[in-house]
Amino acid sequence: MHWADGPSSPPSMSGEDISARKERCLRSFVALMAEARPGQPLDIVEVGSWLGESAIMWHGALRDFCAGSGRVICVDPWQPYEGKAGIGQLLDAEQTRQLNARTAFASFQNNIERAGASDTIEVRRGESDDILPALPAGAFDIVYIDGDHSYAQVAKDIVNAKPLVRDGGLICGDDLEVLYNECNLPLAIKWAELGTEYVRDPETGLLFHPGVTLAVWRHFGEVSRWGLTWAMQRHGQSWRKVALA
Ligand SMILES: C[S@@+](CC[C@H](N)C(=O)[O-])C[C@H]1O[C@@H](n2cnc3c(N)ncnc32)[C@H](O)[C@@H]1O
Fold it and tell me: Which fold has domain 15-177+220-240?
């Protein structure tokens, strides 16, 4: 599979397009790691699992590229969360009702079970601040960051994720709609400091997560990006852009 780093999704992309593009990325990350460590089970941490869409994508990729060997640790408090209502393939009217009735975790479990992913998924219910520091250092091929999208939290998640990744492994995440040099940076900094999660840039008209843009830029500088998904690869003590092929 070949595609180059490129601009984020055009505003016309549907939730389905965005999900399909995300799945291609996650599968490519697993394929890359499986090639680097043939025959080894892969260890993945996911920060923010919500209804299980991306967890099920990881499961499918492990099945297809690692003969199902590996695990995905899903870290999420599963408190009511409606930040992405309408986006993704797993949210319908009934699930929205369930979310409002505070049963997001039950929906996650149900989706994982229906996907046949229960053996791959390990649940760690709680805040990433508490769970990530307790995981073993250097033990993971991929850490995927898609939890709270405020600047402060994305920055903490990146700091806590870095030591977990083994040499050659990846840190990646979702919802990087624009890079630091594609938005009004002073405004983005102001929004990030205010804790604004999602906002429209008046210059470009693009909706974006200033916290993700800022945190990724401050911790890594330039990153690899495909659609809304970003990634960096560990090389010893440094982090480099990722070549996907
Ligand atoms: C954007 S959704 C995740 C979507 C999921 N990765 C997918 O693609 O299907 C964000 C999730 O982050 C979770 N979250 C919010 N704050 C968190 C925190 N401090 N630690 C871990 N998860 C958190 C929310 O409960 C929510 O389920």
Answer: Rossmann fold (3.40.50)
